[in-house]
Amino acid sequence: MTHPLHYWRQKNRYYHEDLERLHRFFVPPGLRILEIGSGTGSLLNALQPSFGVGIDWDAEIVAQAQRQFPHLHFRVQDAHTLDKQDPILAEPFDVILLVNTLGYLADVQQVLERLRRFCTPRTRLILSYHNPLWEPLLSLATVLKQRMPLPAANWLSAGDVANLLHLAGYEVIQQGKRLLLPRRIPLLSTLINRFIAPLPGINALCLTEYTIARPQPDPAWDPPLEEQPSCTVVIPARNEAGNIRRCVQQLPEMGSRTEIIFVEGHSSDDTWAEIQRVQDEYQGIRTIQALRQEGKGKGDAVRKGFAAASGDVLIILDADLTVQAEELPKFFRAVASGRCDFANGCRLVYPLKPEAMPRLNQWANRFFAALLSHILGIRIKDSLCGTKALWREDYWQIAKLRQEWGDFDPFGDFDLLLGAAKRTLKILDIPVRYFPRTYGRSNIQHVRDGLRLLQICAFALSRFKGS
Q1: DSSP secondary-structure letter at 434?
Q2: Has residue 443 got a pLDDT over 70?
Q3: What is the H or E stretch that residue 96 is in?
Q4: Domains located in the chain, CATH noted
Q5: Are 130 and 103 in contact (CB under 8 A)?
Q6: Tens digit of pLDDT for each residue in 401-412?
Q7: How many Å separate Cα 227 from the centre of its chain?
Q8: If you write DSSP's letter for every residue of 10-55 in order, what string do you get?
Q9: Which of 86, 348, 390, 394 is the most buried (most CB within 10 A)?
Q10: Beta-bridge partners for 250
Q11: Regarding beta strands 51-56 and 73-76, do their DSSP bridges make them parallel or antiparallel, or are they unpaired?
Q12: What is the mean pLDDT of residues 386-403?
């Protein structure tokens, strides 16, 4: 006999298909996945795990899921008492899912605390749940037999979930809402859910809320230098001959080894020759590579430098030194210690001189940061600072997205930020002081580049809110 859950899933297929799209967006195939409250197993199967385990309290639905998806592993267990005695739970997981499960747990904090034993520092928890504003509508849907009858639920807000995660030893990476019309109505559902639901204000009314979290890092990280990760600093340089030597002189050694890669980009001054002179002068003292750019744009230069990098942690330093090289250890330690996966420079904390960043530029930066924060579901105060840091292994996961997204960003800032958000990396702003140039002129063209940034934000909106 087919379990009633199959009937209700089919009746509300449009809603469940949207849940699948949401999770497929954040979870690439080939990971080890544990799902708490796995139900029919359809979502777990849709994510194409290399090793998938589903836990549910209902023996009948577990048996049917195991028959339907024999390549996955389903168990009847109570999430409150889950342990590693079962061999399939002996190894940690890359992703742990709780999809519409939090509302029916007797003790949410206890379950979240228990799940830590199945985590590594890189594990991601993805929790989805109903917006409490929908409680009256969903209760009515149950009365009208449009929704499966369920026991009394915990109606948790995003703030409640964030607080419970913090108490259980996790930190939130990002939160979001989606799906304003959970039934398929030709044309209307697409119009409302893709174009109206993402709008500020209206987005707060959406049915599905989600939170992505990770285990809190060890605050006491301070190993000896030889045990720390290595580091590569990539310095794109176009018409920056007067700053090359200062870049090397001011750049501190970081971690177990620091590599410097200059990427020269079609300069009309003496930049390339100066890079070669400095490289020769520091031979045997500093590890310096010198590359010439075939393509155009800072983003292309950064990608070329990252492709040649050997360090564990990758850092971008603009050759104009408007952000000082002495600031880079803050970025290195933030990533190497695990406090974040992606360190994003923020120039909008300390006072700014008008000659460093005119008032109009400041407001433009704040606008694009606020817009991107809304789209990505994370807090970013400065989306356009060129100084950033991340793990090399994470960069290559971001780089794979170009096969799907293409090279949409000539600047390199949004390319990395969007990729980091999609790969569920923990992003933190690193406040830095921003100084006027002492050599050369800015390569920014305000009107042209502003229009490009708007196009990039539209692209991000289509991927993150319209997927």
Answers
A1: B
A2: no
A3: strand 95-99
A4: 4-215 (3.40.50.150), 225-464 (3.90.550.10)
A5: yes
A6: 988 887 777 677
A7: 27
A8: HHTHHHHHHHHHHHHHHS-SS-EEEEES-TTSHHHHHT--SEEEEE
A9: 390
A10: none
A11: parallel
A12: 94
Q: H/E/C letters for each residue in 395-429?
A: HHHHHCCHHHHCCCCCCCHHHHHHHHHHCCCCEEE
Query: At 126, is the secondary structure helix, strand, or coil?
Result: strand
* Other residues' Cβ atoms within 10 Å of the Cβ of residue 324: 16
Q: Which two tokens stand for residue 300?
A: 């292309």
Helix (H, G, I), strand (E, B) or coil at 312: coil
Listed range (228-237, 367-376, 420-429) with the worst mean pLDDT: 367-376
Burial (Cβ within 10 Å: 0-12, 13-18, ≥19) of residue 402: middle
- Angstrom distances, CA of residue 103 to CA of 206, 263, 390: 17, 52, 35
Contact assessment for residue 330 and residue 447, using Cβ atoms and an 8 Å cutoff: no
> Helices in 193-327 by DSSP H: which ranges?
244-250, 271-281, 298-308
The C-alpha atoms of residue 378 and residue 368 are separated, in whole angstroms, by 13
Q: What is the pTM of this model?
A: 0.90
CB 301 within 8 A of CB 409: no
Name which of 322, 355, 327 is nearest 243 in CA terms: 322
Q: List, in order, residues 6 or more apart from 188 with CB less than 8 Å away.
A: 181
**Phi (first) and psi of residue 378, to 5 degrees:** -135, 165
* Helical ranges in 282-434 per DSSP H: 298-308, 328-336, 359-376, 392-399, 402-405, 413-422
Which DSSP symbol is given to 378?
A: S
- Report pLDDT for 21: 96
Q: In this predicted model, what pLDDT tens digit does every residue of 313-336 receive, in sequence order?
A: 999 999 999 999 999 999 999 999
